[in-house]
Write a structure and sequence with these properties.
heterodimer, B: mainly alpha, globular
Chain lengths: ~10, ~220
């Protein structure tokens, strides 16, 4: 399961 | 989500809405650099490629859509709207912004967190955002006087990135393993570019005189 994409900021 | 980041996003949203409001109501883009707006549209287009693939939150998706639609609308207004386009001063807005795109892309190829298309495009958008304001600042230097809305637009843009720096500091101390050097350095460079504009903006506001930027 792909680790959540590092970029959660806009 | 922390207060600095929320405040930063809201300030960023306000900057775009101030600009759209100005162009839409007075049907003029005097003092606005089309090149900076084109660079911002490119920044959002390359940063939000994951809009339909990675769902993070409703807020995240909504804001991405707003930024994409507003930045492309502003470019459309200045380029194609029959009245607005007449007020675009292309003789003054001469910054060779294409010279910014290539170095940012090459740098993103070399310095990035992961060598994948999405990550390289994301890193490219970070570097490009750091320098996207340059054509606008050059135009402000040239036209010397700037009207309130343009001054507020640039001020809000600078303020949003300053708030993001506080957000990064906050996240660094509260979230283990939250380290993004590329984002931090790029964001810092971007904010420093605004620093001299801020200085003159506050000077004019304090002395209650029209903003004059030194040649």
């Amino acid at each position: 399961e792909e680790q959540p994409q590092g970029h959660d900021e806009l | 989500m922390n207060i600095f980041r929320l405040a930063g996003d809201m300030t960023h949203l306000a900057s775009v809405l101030v600009l759209l409001l100005k162009i839409h109501t007075i049907k003029s883009c005097a003092g606005i650099s089309l090149k900076t707006q084109e660079l911002y549209a490119l920044v959002f287009a390359t940063r939000y490629l994951d809009l339909f693939t990675d769902y993070i939150s409703l807020y995240n998706t909504l804001m991405k859509l707003i930024f994409l639609v507003s930045s492309f609308s502003i470019v459309w207004y200045i380029r194609h709207h029959k009245i607005v386009r007449r007020s675009y001063d292309k003789d003054q807005d001469t910054f060779r912004h294409y010279f910014l795109v290539l170095p940012c892309f090459l740098l993103a190829l070399v310095i990035n967190e992961k060598f994948t298309v999405k990550e390289i495009m994301w890193t490219f958008s970070l570097y490009l955002e750091a320098v996207a304001i340059l054509p606008q600042l050059v135009l402000l230097q040239r036209t010397r006087n700037i009207d309130n809305l343009t001054g507020q637009y640039v001020f809000l843009l600078g303020a949003y990135r300053s708030l993001y720096i506080l957000n990064w500091i906050y996240r660094y101390f509260t979230e283990p393993h939250y380290v993004h050097w590329i984002t931090w350095i790029s964001g810092l460079v971007q904010t420093l570019l605004y620093a001299d504009f801020f200085y003159y903006y506050f000077q004019s506001w304090k002395n209650n005189v029209k903003l004059e930027l030194p040649a």
